[in-house]
Amino acid sequence: MAEIRPLRAWRYSKTLQNDLDSLVSPLFDVVSERQRRHLYENKYNSIHISVPNNENALPAVSKKVTDWKNKGIIQQDPLPSIYVYYQYFTLPGSSKELIRKGFIANLKIYDWHEKILLRHESTMPFSVEDRIDILDKTQMNVSPTHGLYTESSHEIESYLEEAIKYPLYETEDYQGVRDVFAVIQDAKIINHIIEMMKDKQIILADGHHRYESSLLYKKRKEKGNPDHNGEEGYNYHLMYFTNTEADDLRILPTHRLISELEGFNEKDLLNKLEKYFFIKGIDEAANINEVILGKKWAFGLLIGENAYKIILKPELIDSINWNFPQDIKELDLTVLHYFVIEKCLGIPGRDQKESKKISFERNFAKCLQKVTSGEEQCAIITKDIAIDTVKKVCYSGYTLPQKSTYFYPKVICGFLFGSIKDDEFNSFFDEAFK
Predict the structure, then answer these.
(1) How many helices and strands (H and E) does the chain possess?
(2) Phi and psi (nearest 5°) for 237?
(3) CA 8, CA 106: separation in Å to the nearest integer?
(4) In sequence order, what are the residues at sequence separation of 6 or more whose Cβ sits closer than 8 angstroms to the Cβ of residue 65?
(5) CA atoms within 13 A on the CB side of 365
(6) Are strands 306-312 and 277-282 parallel, antiparallel or unpaired?
(7) What pLDDT is recorded for position 80?
(8) 30: phi then psi, degrees, rounded to nearest 5
(9) How do residues 306-315 score in pLDDT, each as one tens digit?
(10) Residues paired with residue 299 on neighbouring β-strands, in sequence order
(11) Interatomic CA distance for residues 270 and 252, integer angstroms
């Protein structure tokens, strides 16, 4: 089902790799303005081609990529390879080190209806067009998206384990995560990994906008190319693959912030919520994550200086009239968006994806600060999501509400770039993988 192939990645020259920490950057959708200003100061930082600033806007990106190639700032690996990427990290409140193990390769681009690549979130049109512009001007996938495959035998990881013993480089990123990078160039091993991936469906964990951009770009190029044969670089997309059966896959919660609602009033909201939820005041707002942990259909609610635990009255679950299967109706996030955001806050489900009244924040402390300062009217605190829930939604053919998952840690931009230019994408060595 899923066709992958190795690539000859463009990577920073060996001289620059000694200072790789100063060249990598966060992904375009998580990098803050403050981070951008700092990273732009280094003229060779990867952010110049992933998130161009006003002085290096889109028309100049193509020239910059060409200059970097001509000057040897980035150099293309001579052999098609699979790149091994391990991330060593800890979570707040724990000293246990976790390791997310994965590899980077090119994935053939599939349309959603083919059910080979499965999505769990919808995309925003503006962000998709922005990423198409970057893909078109750079002719590169400037960062890999994150895909999940399922393999209970962990055989692929055994090859990754051997490769990671000989790392190409190691850095510590902005998340405090230790990133270790290695390469597999043995054609026999690569072909075996390709074969093992053929029967997999891939779940898109992170990078929905970037993948959608590659899909739309491929369709546009194919339509305009009378000699299209399916082997062109634009038919493939750069992806970081990790195993859903691994112990160290983590999905962190993303909370909802509400603002700009006319006539918003705490008492009125609580009165509306009482129709659907059991409500209990919480003396210490900082404890709200622990209070709702492990409880079905339970959420935290922050309003001004006050904090509440709300739990759906179970007999009301069947009153959800959205056209979803029962399994999807019973998800926490469906309950949140139907009963809290639509019924009590008055934002219809059809409008929620585009609504400027809803924003998203992963950091609980920031939610608390924004609500107590009056910057936001209220915050709805959610729990983390299990990978089995993501699988259930993907296999059902439905999607979760926007910003439902935060796979942690985030992949880093700058370790490699994947060209889609035909003279760089294809090589003599490709015959070894057909």
Answers:
(1) 16, 21
(2) -135, 140
(3) 10
(4) 49, 137, 138, 139, 140
(5) 1
(6) antiparallel
(7) 96
(8) -125, -10
(9) 999 999 999 9
(10) 310
(11) 27
Report CA 320 to chain centroid distance, whole Å. Answer: 29
The structure's pTM equals: 0.90
- Give the distance from CA 226 to its chain's centroid: 34
User: What pLDDT does residue 124 have?
Assistant: 62
Put residue 274 in one of left, alpha, beta given phi > 0 → left and psi -120 to 50 → alpha.
Answer: alpha
Q: Which residue has the tokens 């693959």?
A: 241
Q: Sketch the domain layout of the chain as residue ranges.
A: 4-251+409-433, 254-383
Tell me the pLDDT band of 46, cut-offs 50, 70 and 90: very high
Token pair listed for 37 = 């200003």
SS3 377: coil
* CATH number of the domain located at residue range(s) 254-383 in this protein: 3.30.1760
pLDDT score of 58: 74
For residues 59 and 134, the answer to whether their CB atoms sit within 8 Å is: no
What is the percent of the chain where pLDDT is above 90?
72
Q: Token pair 């926490």 is at which residue?
A: 332
Digit-coded pLDDT (tens) for 193-211: 999 999 999 999 998 889 9
pLDDT-based confidence at 143, cuts 50/70/90?
A: very high
Q: Which residue has the tokens 């770039």?
A: 417
Candidate from 54-58, 156-160, 211-215 with smallest mean pLDDT: 54-58
What residues contact 336, with CB distance under 8 A and at least 6 apart?
256, 299, 380, 382, 401
Are the CB atoms for 303 and 371 separated by under 8 Å? yes
Report the SS3 class of residue 137: helix
**Whether 83 contacts 103, CB under 8 Å:** yes
Q: What dihedral angle (degrees, nearest 10) is formed by the CA atoms of 70, 73, 76, 78?
A: 100
Token pair listed for 277: 């939820």
User: Which two three-digit tokens encode residue 88?
Assistant: 């060593």
For the cut 90, the answer to whether the pLDDT of residue 298 exceeds it is yes
